[in-house]
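Asp23/Gls24 family envelope stress response protein
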Amino acid sequence: MSEFSILEMEQGNNGHGKIEIAPEVIEVIAGIAASEVEGVASMRGNFATGVVERLGKKNHGKGVKVELTESGIKVDVYCLMKFGISIPTVAGKIQDNIRQALLNMTALEAEEVNIHVVGIQFETQKIEPEIDSEL
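Tokens:
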């Protein structure tokens, strides 16, 4: 983990106080922005996030790791893609969407947005039971 735990925003001398953003906030923003892109099947989580989601709470930061360094913000996104899409095209759209969302919501620019494709999700066909039409 990085030595920085909270990102302090720089602002002029307006005398209103300071603004701090926790890395978890950036994870949530990046997670939502990534999952909005067409072609992303799901975000990768761990056992704990799976249990939490089964209990009804949505974890929007799932599959996202944020590292705050002296040189800037590094975002790693772990996702599953849908079968049949162009992975480089979708990965580029994810990067653009995350950068734009961070810029719009926090006025921060990410130094790196790394996309890790950890799997492909195939579309499964649901087999519907045959209904006997003889009545």
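The helical segments are 23-35, 47-54, 87-106.
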